[in-house]
Specification:
Rhopdopsin 7-helix transmembrane proteins; two-stranded antiparallel ribbon; globular
C-alpha cells in the first residue's frame, strides 16, 4: 500500500520542484534517521531483555517480541530507501538483488503492521482468558507460542504476496526506477483498489474493533470482580493488580498502534475510493507527510511503551547496563 505514497514522495519530484524539496530534505532526513535509530535500538533491546530474562518468557512477552522483530525489519528495509530517494532520483541497484530489494520495500511495511495487529489480537485473547476465565487452562500456552507467531508471519506474507509481483525495477534510458506495475497484475479493473481496501479492513479496522471489545470486557470484569474471603483477600488483590498492570501494557500498545496507523489507513481508504485525490504537483499537503511519519513512528513508540508500563522491562533494561 506504499506504492502511490512512494511514487509521490520520492525523488521523481525533484526535477519539477527542486526548491520545495530542498526545503524539506533536511527535516525529513532528520525524522527518518531518528525513527530508524529509535526503532532499531528499541526493538533490539526488547529482544535482548526477553531472551536474557527467564521470567519474561510468557505468551504476552513472546508476542511483543514478535512485534519488535517486525518493527526491526521495517526500518532496516524501508527507511534507507526513503532517505536515498530524497537525494538520488534513481534506484541504485540493478539485477536480481535490486529486484529483490525493490519487492522487499513493497511488502515489508504492510507485512510488519499485519504481524503487529495479529499479535495484538493474540495478546487480547490471552488476557481475556487470564482475567475472565482464570481457572481454565490457558488458550495459548508458552510452548505453542512459536506456532502462533509463525502463523502470524505466514498469514501476513501470504496476504500481501501480490505486492511482490506488482513491484519491480524498471530500466529507463537515464535511470532505474523501483515502481509498482499494478495494471500488469490486476488489469485495468478496480481489482487493485478492492484488494487494498480489503487488506485495510481485514488487518486494521476489524482487528482493532475485536481488540477493543475484548479489552472493554476485561475492564468491566476487573471492575466488578470481588475478592472471596478475608484470607485470600491479599493474594486476590495482588493477582488483580498484576492483571491490571499487564492489561495497561497491552492496552497502551494497542492504543499506540491505533493512533499511529489508523490515520494512514483512513487516508488510504479515501484515496482508493477517490474521495481524496493524491497530489501529483509540488503542493503536497503537510497532513500527508504527518500521517506517513506517524505510521513509521509506531516501531519507535512500542519499545518506549514497554519500558514505561512494565516494571519487568524496566528492570531488564537496568540489568543490561550493569
Amino acid at each position: 500500500m506504499s506504492e502511490n505514497e512512494s511514487a509521490t514522495m520520492n525523488g521523481t519530484q525533484s526535477s519539477s520542484c527542486p526548491a520545495i524539496l530542498q526545503q524539506k530534505k533536511i527535516g525529513m532526513t532528520f525524522l527518518y534517521c531518528m525513527i530508524f535509530i529509535l526503532s532499531s535500538a528499541g526493538s533490539t533491546v526488547i529482544g535482548v531483555i526477553t531472551y536474557k530474562t527467564k521470567t519474561m518468557r510468557k505468551p504476552i512477552n513472546f508476542f511483543i517480541l514478535s512485534m519488535a522483530m517486525s518493527d526491526l525489519l521495517f526500518p532496516i528495509c524501508f527507511i534507507p530507501w526513503k532517505v536515498q530517494v530524497l537525494y538520488i532520483d534513481s534506484w541504485l541497484i540493478g539485477g536480481p538483488l535490486g529486484q529483490a530489494l525493490c519487492k522487499l520495500v513493497a511488502i515489508v511495511p504492510d507485512m510488519s503492521s499485519a504481524v503487529s495487529i495479529q499479535s495484538l489480537v493474540l495478546i487480547a485473547v490471552d488476557r481475556i482468558r487470564a482475567v475472565v476465565y482464570p481457572l481454565r487452562s490457558p488458550l495459548i500456552r508458552s510452548k505453542l507460542c512459536p506456532f502462533f507467531i509463525l502463523a502470524t508471519w505466514i498469514v501476513a506474507t501470504a496476504a500481501f504476496s501480490p505486492l511482490l509481483v506488482v513491484n519491480k525495477v524498471v530500466e529507463y534510458p537515464e535511470k532505474l526506477v523501483c515502481e509498482g506495475r499494478s495494471n500488469e497484475v490486476f488489469g485495468e479493473s478496480l481489482a487493485v483498489e478492492h484488494y487494498m481496501v480489503s487488506c485495510i479492513v481485514l488487518f486494521r479496522f476489524i482487528p482493532l474493533v475485536i481488540i477493543a471489545i475484548l479489552y472493554i470486557t476485561i475492564y468491566l470484569r476487573l471492575k466488578s470482580q470481588k475478592i472471596p474471603g478475608e484470607q485470600s483477600a491479599n493474594a486476590g488483590q495482588q493477582r488483580q493488580q498484576r492483571e491490571r498492570n499487564v492489561l495497561k501494557l497491552a492496552a497502551a500498545i494497542m492504543i499506540g498502534f491505533a493512533v499511529c496507523l489508523l490515520p494512514l489507513s483512513i487516508l488510504w481508504c479515501l484515496l482508493l475510493t477517490d474521495t481524496v485525490v493524491w497530489p501529483t504537483d509540488c503542493g503536497v499537503p503537510y497532513y500527508f507527510y504527518l500521517v506517513i511519519f506517524m505510521a513509521l513512528a509506531n516501531g519507535a513508540i512500542n519499545p518506549c511503551i514497554c519500558i514505561i508500563f512494565s516494571r519487568n522491562y524496566r528492570n531488564g533494561l537496568k540489568a543490561l547496563f550493569r
